[in-house]
Specification:
Number of helices: 10
Protein name: histidine kinase
Pfam families: HATPase_c, HisKA, PAS
Enzyme class: transferase
Oligomer: single chain
EC number: 2.7.13.3
Catalytic activity: ATP + protein L-histidine = ADP + protein N-phospho-L-histidine
Distance between the termini: 70 Å
Number of domains: 3
């Protein structure tokens, strides 16, 4: 079977057959970085003959300028292995046997064979994609700026999220001072591991669709540009922007959750004028609604102002309105009402969407929970959990009623003056 030795690392015939026929290059290395097996596609990508990769160091496949740094990265992965993409936000370059370089995309995983850690690298030649991206950059200057800003935001938010998780882990370790603190620390650690697992699962699933959309649209834009079809180019630029908004929303959910977990969300007391505030939200969110959808605002406040945290209140309403839009058909209105309720002001968000099944309603504020009828609508299952925690910070309440297939009404009650509430 080529470079897969009989009775060696891969003994199952079906698995060996899959390994041999994969369209991605696959290389397995030991903890020293030495290649122990590679599939034919990997040999083809790097320009080596059958079994010629076996025994080489992984750094032999990298340009000389990257080899020193990569030894450090490899050591760090061996000490804390977990499945991930390699070089997020950076261009990765590999070296063929003939000395030429080519761009690659690499995903890392690991396994153990007879107690020894083996790292698996899944490698794809993305030269065609790079050519497509370069062509797109030359023809769409505005898209270049947008893509550059997106890349920077993704890097910053990914770094912030990693920092948040590491900081939470450090705090868990520091709380082990007494038996009760140990119990609480262990529980916190379990929750963090669950969060990481959920994040990897959701990120791999939720990122795949919009990223595939970006890639396919970018390829089609290049074709339509050659044919001189600006209408179709505009359509796919809009698809790319929509996919970017989906990715940004996912990252914002995880960053918000991290801040709430750390207790780093402070309430800022400021004067808000509800009617003007809702008008601003309507203007801001209009670009995120489906075709034909619009907000119907009805502000019945007796008082002209309230004292609250505008950023937190905006995030609460923005999340509820976005959900109403996602789970409603095109051309369906979304009703927003604000009115006095004693020392509180009620903000109601009502839609005519798919509703929430009765058996799911008790779980709607649970972390990572999604209703059984959510279907293919994208989401992390974090939005309402974050909304509930924001409302708790404001000393408010949230409730809802829903009828399956007919719509949902959320009611948020916020103190007219958060200054008057006990801390």
């Amino acid at each position: 079977m080529g470079n897969i030795p009989e009775g060696g690392l891969i003994t199952n015939e079906a698995f060996r057959e899959i390994f041999q026929s994969m369209s991605e290059g696959i290389i397995m290395v030991d903890t020293r970085g030495r290649i122990v097996v590679a599939n034919p596609m990997a040999e083809q990508l790097f320009g080596y003959g059958t079994d010629a990769l076996t025994g080489l160091m992984l750094e032999d496949l990298l340009p000389q300028r990257y080899r020193g740094g990569h030894v450090h990265f490899r050591s760090a992965f061996n000490s804390n292995p977990f499945p991930r993409r390699m070089g997020v936000g950076r261009d990765l370059t590999a070296l063929r046997q003939d000395g030429s370089e080519f761009p690659v995309e690499i995903s890392l995983s690991f396994t153990k064979v007879k107690g020894e850690l083996l790292v698996m690298a899944f490698i794809s030649d993305i030269s065609l994609r790079k050519k497509t991206e370069d062509a797109l950059k030359r023809s769409e200057e505005q898209l270049i700026v947008y893509a550059a800003e997106l890349e920077k935001k993704v890097e910053m938010r990914t770094e912030a999220l990693n920092h948040t998780i590491l900081k939470l882990e450090d705090e868990v370790n520091e709380r082990k001072k007494a038996e009760e603190e140990v119990r609480k620390s262990l529980e916190k650690e379990r929750e963090l591991n669950e969060l990481k697992t959920k994040f990897v699962s959701i990120a791999s699933h939720e990122f795949r669709t919009p990223l595939s959309t970006v890639l396919s649209s970018a390829s089609l834009i290049d074709q339509y540009n050659d044919r001189g079809e600006p209408d179709k180019i505009h359509k796919h630029v809009q698809r790319i922007k929509s996919s970017v908004n989906q990715l940004t929303g996912i990252l914002n959910d995880f960053l918000s959750l991290g801040k709430l977990e750390e207790g780093r969300e402070d309430v800022v007391h400021e004067v808000i004028y509800p009617k003007e505030f809702l008008d601003e939200i309507e203007e801001e969110i209009s670009g995120f609604l489906k075709e034909g959808q619009h907000l119907v605002l009805d502000c019945r406040m007796e008082a002209s102002e309230i004292v609250c945290d505008a950023r937190i209140l905006r995030n609460i309403l923005f999340n509820l309105i976005t959900n109403a839009s996602k789970y409603s058909d095109v051309n369906k209105p979304i009703y927003i009402t604000c009115m006095n309720n004693g020392p509180f002001v009620n903000f109601e968000v009502r839609d005519e969407g798919i509703g929430i099944p009765l058996e799911d309603q008790k779980h709607m504020f649970d972390r990572f929970f999604r209703a059984s009828n959510a279907g293919n609508v994208q989401g992390t299952g974090l939005g309402l959990n974050i909304v509930k925690r924001y409302i708790d910070l404001l000393k408010g309440t949230i409730s809802f009623t829903s009828e399956y297939g007919k719509g949902t009404r959320f009611i948020v009650a916020i103190p007219i003056s958060t200054n008057d509430q006990p801390k």
